[in-house]
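Working notes for the structural subgroup meeting. M.R. asked for a predicted model of this chain before we commit to crystallization trials. I am recording the input and output together here so anyone reviewing the notebook later can reproduce the run.

Input as submitted:
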Amino acid sequence: MPGPLEGVVITELAGLGPAPFCGMLLADLGAEVVRVDRIGGPRLPIGTVESDVLNRGKSSIAVDLKSPEGVDVVLRTVSRSDALIEGFRPGVAERLGIGPGECLARQPSLVYARMTGWGQTGPMADMAGHDIDYIALSGALHPIGRSDRPVPPLNLVGDFGGGGMLLALGVLAALHHAGATGEGQVVDAAMVDGSALLTASHHGYLADGWWRPERESNLLDGAAPFYTTYETADGGHMAVGALEPQFFAALLGGLDVHPGQVGDQSDRERWPEMRETFARRFATRTRDEWAEHFAGSDACVAPVLSMVEAPRHPHNTERKTFLTVAGVTQPAPAPRFSSTPSEIGGPPPRVGEDTDAVASAAGFSPDEIGMLRESGAIA
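Returned structure, recorded in token form:
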């Protein structure tokens, strides 16, 4: 069955991280995503083509973006596209001749989606940076970690949550507008903006005085002994999230701890004592023994699984949360749709694997394709 974005065509200028993640999300939803790879340009920082999961379900055309003929190939591809995704620094696409002006002239209803760290404007727009820098400036990094220092949460908050996911939302919203009005537009998605947006509720907590600026002093940052992790007898860990009183009571019951031993849940003065009590109990069994013990319970306790273990957990296997494509285990498309289910369209393509087919769909004749190949404009 077709996905919910069947019939939508996306041109993606190849890059790393959040922009291809956005393209992957749209491809999983059924969009036709054409990745434009630079001839001779780097694509994979590590690994193999098959492990380049962010490019699953796409097609690839290899183009020399420094040649006028190559630029024309991109613009003609854009002419049949509903959206374009690019993750260059501000001004780079314009210098290449494939900026919003040129592309919207070819396709007035085009959604021109731009992914950067700092945004298209502002005093830092032209500076280099990575996820950790963007979430540092947005205030999203500061609350994460132990009391003595912040700890980078991988590159999930900036690159993917505040970046690629935000860009996908922007593309879908602009596509809706274009469908209703025929008017295209530029979407400026910045990781500093998106990661700031992820902290919206915490800014509300801060304004109410409920959230303290110091790390590891709040309900959700590891300070509370009923919202943290504990080491088990085998060196594993259990995650505890028993926030509500009824779940806290279930936690105490599961640990065989009498309420009088730890006092009132909200009594911060007794939190250190409570943490020590819980830590001693969790240290008496292995992680898997505790997981079995709390199975079916409302204590909000779960085993901390590695990325190797997670695909094998019974809940994930029943829901098919992970799939294996071309020998690579990876997360399945999400969310789920009742009438237009998402699916992985295929493994990541090799660079230029679909050049002829994409050029043909853009209106180039076989003779023109041969001439472009001979000139080095495509490969």
